[in-house]
Amino acid sequence: MHIDRVAALDIGGTKIAGALVDGNGRILVRAQRPTPAQEDGESVMRAVEEVLAEVAASPLWSGATAIGIGSAGPVDASAGTVSPVNVPGWRGFPLVERVREATGGLPVTLVGDGVAMTAAEHWQGAARGYDNALCMVVSTGVGGGLVLGGKLHPGPTGNSGHIGHISVDLDGDLCPCGGRGCVERIASGPNIARRALEGGWQPGPDGDTSAAAVAAAARAGHPVAIASFERAAQALAAGIAATATLVEIGIAVVGGGVANAGEVLFAPLRRSLRDYATLSFVQRIELAPALTGTDAGLVGAAAAAALGSRDEETATIGG
Amino acid sequence: MHIDRVAALDIGGTKIAGALVDGNGRILVRAQRPTPAQEDGESVMRAVEEVLAEVAASPLWSGATAIGIGSAGPVDASAGTVSPVNVPGWRGFPLVERVREATGGLPVTLVGDGVAMTAAEHWQGAARGYDNALCMVVSTGVGGGLVLGGKLHPGPTGNSGHIGHISVDLDGDLCPCGGRGCVERIASGPNIARRALEGGWQPGPDGDTSAAAVAAAARAGHPVAIASFERAAQALAAGIAATATLVEIGIAVVGGGVANAGEVLFAPLRRSLRDYATLSFVQRIELAPALTGTDAGLVGAAAAAALGSRDEETATIGG
């Protein structure tokens, strides 16, 4: 697609990043601050303003036509507010209004971070050219977003594609969200590590109990580590198949730290997908690792802003 | 919406119905044949042609601008073919082409029966006025369809919203579709009855072991009958919550024979929905019984045809 130069914010529990992004998805200017996640809401906003001020100091800023925000969720795009789980000082925080004020009235588009990553993958990554796609991030949590009918589908509040919190195990373990057997409760990095430890896997001399360490053990043939990834893959497959059965996606793109495990995750994921994606219209679903990296949040927020600033009915990305 | 007069076909495993439907969703002419489900494909098509000939014999036929087909699935709208599970003589049967030939070249729109029911509920029923809705039929099977962004969302092959075959119990019982723990495997009428019988419920002197008989027993306070409906409601709630979490629906409309159980189903369904629809953007989802009755398939096929015969980007129903 053709997009103008736009500004972007990527807001997470660890860092707040800002950028100017050009029409080819290249980052022209960037700035970053740690998120003062345990401080009050105004302190967090001050960090956002510092990032924006640093980006706006660039001579290129004057060409920016809009600003996109991808934020840790939940977000409420219809109200313009965010309530990131890991930023307790922000509950119903009017981020859209505050960013509009801080940028001299630029049009602001807010989406969840999973939707932003999806916009990036559809524009620049593995979902490019697909009219119907699920893109997901498997990391500390499990998030995602949807492309439907050739267009990003943020939904009314900007949260669509929230695959981490659909239940695939209705009698399963309680999830911090209040549900049971959510995909995230089974497939996130911390849950992969927890299950391996509970099964008797022990970390090496460095004491690393991350999912990456479990992946290394699985690669070396440790059966408990392999089983923990297989269980995660089963939950992801059930969630991907559910999404395909509900909205007919052609591809599922999987990114995030846990996806870096490579075939340790993707091999059982492909197998399990055959078990759950059974109906004729979902059997041909493709599976691919994400191509956009750590900048996906910024690039995707820019793409969402470019879409949000024009007629939704005619905007398409990926072309 | 304003629609022209259109023809409609509703094709199921038991009967084939045809109609002329006016712009207000009224049925002007109708015809029906039993489905010769166990005969060869050409015999089934002959029944379709007889239904069409009877409808076309009406003097009103000359005003018909399009024909919509709602068919038992799976369907493939992109190929124009149907393969209804209960009509073994039709496997990849080119129904769209054959109906076009039989109607002198009218534009034909094919959707799955769950999508057709959804079109009817959005046009005339409980989903009217909602931009984002899931409509479902809980009966011998469990089907459904989606309205997204104010428009029917059939998906590329006409099967979107197929909620009966998403897994909500990834280690659960095998489903005839090949998956495990599908919503239909837990919540369909036959499965409600099976579970009640397995739990020790016994039918009355009339020997009726239908889900309706289990509902009557539940209404009379039989704990096993109540528990079987509660389990069905739990699976439906997990499926509805998953749909809301994935695509942000404002209402879930539940129809079909099992929904006739009324509060025996809806009371535990409302309770279970609170357990699974936990994220802020799905907590306010509404739940309503379907309003369109046995003609939903015909009315919905007509609505789908009216949408299919105009620019997809501008067509809306429900307004």
TrEMBL record, chains A, B:
PROSITE patterns: ROK
Matches recorded under InterPro entries: ATPase_NBD (IPR043129), ROK (IPR000600), ROK_cs (IPR049874)
Sequence intervals crossing the membrane: none
Source superkingdom: Bacteria
Pfam families (alphabetical): ROK
Family in the record: Belongs to the ROK (NagC/XylR) family.
UniProt-recorded name of the protein: ROK family protein
